[in-house]
Amino acid sequence: MEKIREQFSRLQIAKRSALTEDPTYLLDIDISKGEGSHLVAVSCSNQSIRVYNRETLSLLREYSNHPGLLSGVRFAHACKDVLFSASSDGTVKCWDTRSGSLEPVQLFCGYPSNVFISFDISCNDLILCAGTEKVEEDAFIVFWDARGCTNSASSSKAPLGVYSESHNDDITKIGCHPSKPNLVVSGSTDGLVNVFDINKDNEEDALISTCNSDSSINFIGWSGKDYQQIYCMTHDEGFCWWDLTQLDTEEPITLLRIPDAREVVSIKNNKLDYLIGGLYLEKSDNLIVVGGMLSGNICLLESCIKGLNPLGVIQGGHSATVRSFYWNMADDSLLTGGEDAQLLLWKPGAVGKAFGKKTSMKITSSVHQRVRVHQKHFKSKTK
After folding, report:
1. How much is the pLDDT for 148?
2. Within a 10 A sphere around the Cβ of 263, how many other Cβ atoms?
3. Which has fewest Cβ within 10 Å: 27, 52, 320, 381?
4. Alpha-carbon span 102 to 105, nearest angstrom
């Protein structure tokens, strides 16, 4: 762990995106994969997607024709120039970043009542899935065949089908397994984290496990050897961690459950205000929880079965709440975005050009958007 602590302590600002007058929060970050890839995409609170050069953070293009709120951005795994985004207008759009056109090359349409607030694409780029808000009594996970996303002309695709029985409220997060294209995890404001094998013929058979966080899900991820663990953060700053290898044993599946990380994490001269997400370091088999302070500082925590242990604080970058991050394992760099409208690139031992911080454009933090936290206990299919 000391090696990881030292690794993070060496992070310095290498680049900072140009200051703008547009008071835009940077909500989600993803980078293009593969040899020669150099792009980073950011979804913004003004319903636009910005694509930057990953090394210089110069703005390359901006897609701003979204009629609804964005719920994230994802690059395809095999094609470094293909980008996806989901929107509350009930569509998932595919963009070809090589094209000069600012129109999507393909449109994935949901059903008429769908409002998408989460999505992901499988590790083999074959299946898109998106989670909806609850409308009347229904909350859906919608699936599409993602192949053929580089058409020269815009086209539309209808869904392959839906899951509709496993959640009873807004599906806030979807996460495809990093190496097994048949596995998908979903989280909801109903407090449940569900794992599916989408190769099964129906939703009931597909549901492998149901884990209950007892609160509204804000972030989910995969971790552990062969990514056989799942974890989540909740909208009231809770943390839960489960081991799926224990499903068919007498051992408890829950590795760690913390109702409110702010009450148990002690950081010298700092105070944890919120959780942002997590990252799994495959080489060292460590799960890192990323949190933050209202000042803009970022806190890194080691997750172990005894609790969350502080690794260090990254400071001097943002001047307001940090909303998004991406850890690039290829070069141990970190990208962060926040409510100060800034995108920052951190690298070990970097010496970047000094730019002035942009001051906060808000009075109080709005980390939590519309959230309904549920305390009801649901029947769990796991121990």
Report:
1. 77
2. 10
3. 381
4. 9
